[in-house]
Design a protein that fits this description.
The chain has 14 helices and no strands. By secondary structure, the protein is mostly helical. Helix 6 runs antiparallel to helix 11 and helix 8 runs parallel beside helix 11.
């Protein structure tokens, strides 16, 4: 990680080359999109808004030319810039201006909510996704040799998926942008402030306004069957999940708990994703409560008192 960060920071040519190379690799291995996005954010965090924007624009042109020649699809470069690099540059610029990862992530979550609301005010998202599922996804799965169940139960499942696809996709994008920003901040700390990222992440808190809005959305989801609110709920979960993870990391560090607890938490989240995402919801609940109860202080203070006794 440190070697890659050093190479990106070696100069403008290296930075642009890294952004483009990682972007091309992400076309083959999707998760690598986090790294190319983080590279844009890192340049912005270290060298400022102007240098970050220059790197973004030059990388976009190079990628558009390359994909245009090699794949006859120059739009790929523009798509990556608009979807991944430009938001990363903007969030990194907020951190640079206000020295606050919390604010940048809240801004990203707010933009995600507005995007969901925009889809519902100006389009019919469920109808759009139903068409995508019927005309593109199902035929693609059949061509791949997968057995697709048919009948009323299957249709009901596809219909439900179409109602949550908008929020799920935008929440996933929010998670990717947040992870990219955290990775960029981690790289920056590795190079210029060793140990600084852990302290910064452990203090991540989104505040009462964000917590109250997330709580209201949660209540509406439980008490109503509103499709738009359900899609907003996914955004709230992702936002509070990051604060919940910050709480867990803080407790392990400050309360001197076993580091294996962190491994257990991440394993629990991963293995419950297909079973109602119980782990994700639990961590998000911890993050939500922390805004009101300051769990990081209370739990560690209680342990310190117990140790004295």
């Amino acid at each position: 990680m440190q070697a890659l960060a050093k190479y990106i920071m070696h100069g403008r040519v290296q930075a642009i080359g890294s952004v483009v190379s990682l972007a091309l690799l992400s076309l083959i291995i999707s998760p690598l999109a986090i790294f190319t996005t983080a590279a844009v954010a890192l340049v912005t965090l270290v060298h400022g808004y102007r240098e970050g924007l220059i790197n973004l624009l030059v990388a976009t042109v190079i990628l558009a030319v390359f994909t245009g020649v090699a794949l006859n699809q120059p739009a790929i470069g523009l798509e990556l810039a608009l979807k991944f690099w430009l938001p990363a540059w903007f969030l990194a610029s907020i951190v640079l201006a206000r020295t606050s990862m919390s604010l940048a992530i809240v801004v990203a979550a707010t933009a995600s909510c507005l995007l969901v609301l925009g889809f519902y005010f100006f389009t019919d998202p469920a109808a759009h996704w139903q068409e995508v599922i019927n005309k593109q996804l199902i035929p693609m799965l059949k061509e791949a040799g997968m057995k697709i169940q048919e009948g009323p139960k299957a249709e009901k499942l596809w219909l439900f998926m179409s109602t949550i696809m908008t929020g799920s996709a935008i929440a996933l994008f929010l998670a990717l942008q947040t992870l990219s920003l955290l990775l960029a901040r981690y790289w920056q700390a590795l190079l210029y402030n060793p140990g600084g990222f852990a302290k910064e992440f452990q203090q991540l808190r989104f505040g009462m306004v964000a917590a109250n809005i997330a709580f209201v959305i949660t209540v509406f989801v439980i008490t109503t069957a509103n499709e738009m609110v359900l899609n907003l709920f996914f955004i709230a979960i992702v936002l509070m999940m990051f604060q919940g993870l910050a709480v867990v990391h803080n407790l392990v560090a400050k309360c001197k708990l076993s580091p294996s607890l962190l491994t257990g938490v991440y394993v629990f989240i991963f293995f419950t994703l297909q079973h109602g995402a119980i782990g994700l919801l639990l961590i998000a609940s911890i993050g939500l409560l922390d805004n009101w109860l300051n769990l990081r202080f209370r739990l560690c203070a209680k342990k310190a008192q117990d140790d004295l006794n």
